[in-house]
Amino acid sequence: MIRALATALALIAPAALAGDYGAALPAPISAETCPTDTTDWTKAALERSLTPQLGLPPVPHPVDNPPTEAKIALGRKLFFDRRLSINRTMSCAMCHVPELGFANWELATAIGVEGRSVKRNAPSVINVGFLSPLFHDGRDPALETQFVAPLVTRNEMANPSIGHVVAELTHLPDYRPLFDAAFTAPASLDRIGQALGAYQCSLTLGNSAFDRWFYGGDEAAMDAAAQRGFELFTGKADCASCHLIDADHALFTDQAFHDTGYGRRREERRQNPPASHLVQVAPGVVHQVDFSRIRAVSAPREADLGRYEVTEEPADRWKFRTPGLRNLAVTAPYMHDGALTTLGEVLEFYNMGGAGHPDQDARIRPLGLNPAELADI
């Protein structure tokens, strides 16, 4: 059933990355199935960064940060380096795991140093170079500055200040030649951001089955069910009014913020938790646990007001950015808090009209899609 519900949406992801939709989670991406040239990977990364792929626009590199192989190599090392956290245990890649589509299938919300909980899901950074602003609430406009918050936030990498991180990098001998190669200068706040931005902008992935069908004119790239799903996606279901498809490319997002009713529903559940909760203690082993026991050993769940936390405008309460749909078959779970684990659950939420709150976006309404139509979408 999950496979059927995901048919059309899964084809937004390249076939090489498609997982097993019959399981709760797709299979991890295997290094054995990904041909690599470890001696020339920076050249390939730079080429991806500079060459538009079918279905994607050109990467909008900042004028003051043109990509180079040296910047990408430095940015990759920074991305995977656990020494950038306060206790040298966490890296960017521990929430954005390459084998898990640069997301994390195993956690609804991210976990920082010492097991500290984060209230939001870690989104994939594939194709992140096309997005602005960033984060679920749009709190930062650019990759070159986005990295600061995770480094200093207490429940993420927990450094006491960004200056502390710069000082650490200045004194690590393996970094000096890399900064010299990329910038002919030592580590600094702006150079760290430029290197991380250059690396993440190289993580582009287009040329999916959808791209080959819609933009490449290959009628065989998508089967009849998926093509019917596309007609519903752009028509009766009206998904494309927020998940945009342009004439020459598709990021499947309007990069805007909407109240779908989901955020307010989750807040109501936070304030009125159930008496018991299902807890998985081992694969396939689930217990119904009294919620008071969970509360006794947990920090209180934080409220999440979405875009309001950035603007403090009452009208922005519970608004979250429209996620792109590329590679979503390998970037579960879904929604800003990762509480929906399958595409079927997401489709069910929107088919019933969201949460039904009076202030939610008018486009979120009962869709009346029948099982066959849901299967096609």
UniProtKB/TrEMBL annotation:
The keyword Signal applies. It is found in: Cell envelope. It comes from the Bacteria. Keywords: Heme, Iron, Metal-binding, Oxidoreductase, Signal. The keyword Iron applies. Residues 224-377 form the Cytochrome c domain. Residues 1-18 form the signal peptide. InterPro entries: Cyt_c-like_dom, Cyt_c-like_dom_sf, Cytochrome_c_Peroxidase/MauG, Di-haem_cyt_c_peroxidsae. SUPFAM superfamilies: Cytochrome c. PANTHER family: BLL6722 PROTEIN, CYTOCHROME C PEROXIDASE-RELATED. This is Methylamine utilization protein MauG.
